Amino acid sequence: MPATHKTTVISNEQLSPNSWRLLLAAQALAEQAQPGQFVQVRVTATYDPLLRTPLSMHDCDPAQGTLTLLYQTVGTSTRMLSRLQAGTELDVLGPLGHGFVLPEQGERGSAILLAGGIGVAPLLFLARELVKKHIDTSLLFGARSAADLVGIADFEQIGVTVTCCTNDGSQGISGNVIDLLDNYLQSHVAGRVFACGPIPMLKALQGLAKQRDLAAQLSLEAYMACGLGACLGCAVAVPGGGFAHVCTDGPVFKESEVEL
Ligand SMILES: Cc1cc2nc3c(=O)[nH]c(=O)nc-3n(C[C@H](O)[C@H](O)[C@H](O)COP(=O)(O)OP(=O)(O)OC[C@H]3O[C@@H](n4cnc5c(N)ncnc54)[C@H](O)[C@@H]3O)c2cc1C
Ligand code: FES
């Protein structure tokens, strides 16, 4: 059962005009977390805003007892988060949901991480675990503009090959990340794909996966309230009718498990 944790802000660093990296002292969370899981953060001690903010576990270091979150400022809660100073106590609920299913050590095939914008957030923790299993790992990272391509050095530092594209052509190849993947597959053996990004990107990936017989896992973002499977706030349609909860059945699903 997920619990609330009293964590402390170690640093809150601005990476781009609207992206931030928050490092928390969070020993218990760092020990329990699995790649692809998320937390719900209460951004103030008051209940305004009322709802917690769901954020992916960007990185975890059990030895240091730290949890890193990577977030974009889009509205009230994330802007409040960006103003937190070192030393502030933060109430964090988690770890929540089901994360990525990792290949077994020695299993054949490479791993392709596919990130759209801030969808890169859950992929660093995953990359670390894949590299530990000696799985050849590449990141294909697409964003609107160069300023949105945050955190690349962290991937390169652990031996992940990074290829970027931007919609405006300001860094890397000009175009979207699905075209980048399609091109990449012309010259690389298809491995497992682990993706996070906007819904249209994930939907396009589902199409490509079907066409090329790719095994893909998708990390979904949905509007959330409870984060615990109790309110139906995060429902996503499943094939054959009915719904799954992104918060408890996901946020990671196989590409064939959801209808986007
Ligand atoms: C499982 C999960 C993991 C997430 N991980 C991350 C992460 O690691 N980093 C990160 O930056 N963001 C992440 N998000 C999205 C993040 O939770 C929202 O951006 C945040 O809650 C917005 O809160 P706000 O009060 O700042 O903005 P609001 O004022 O609530 O909204 C501002 C704008 O963002 C849109 N928006 C808000 N929430 C969502 C959502 N869940 N999906 C799509 N659009 C939304 C609103 O429609 C509005 O246009 C995640 C969401 C989920 C469900
Ligand atoms: S957020 Fe309440 S059921 Fe998922």
Cα-based radius of gyration, to the nearest Å: 18 Å
| The level-1 CATH class of the largest domain | Alpha Beta
Percent range of helical residues:
10-25%
Q: Give the biggest beta sheet.
A: 7 strands, antiparallel
The domain count comes to 3
- Relative strand content: 25-35%
Shape label: globular
Could you provide a short overview of the structure?
This protein is α/β, with parallel strands linked by helices.
Structure in words:
The protein is of the alpha/beta class and 260 residues long. It folds into three domains: 94 residues, Translation factors (Elongation Factor Tu (Ef-tu), domain 3, Beta Barrel); 109 residues, Nucleotide-binding domain of ferredoxin-NADP reductase (FNR) module (Rossmann fold), CATH 3.40.50.80; 39 residues, Ribbon (Dihydroorotate dehydrogenase B (pyrk subunit), domain 3). The protein is built from six helices and 16 strands. The strands form three sheets. A seven-stranded antiparallel beta sheet has the order 4-3-7-1-2-6-5. β8, α3 and β9 form a beta-alpha-beta unit. The chain is globular. Bound molecules: flavin-adenine dinucleotide and FE2/S2 (inorganic) cluster. The site of FE2/S2 (inorganic) cluster (FES) has 12 residues, from loops. Flavin-adenine dinucleotide (FAD) binds next to β4, β6 and α2.
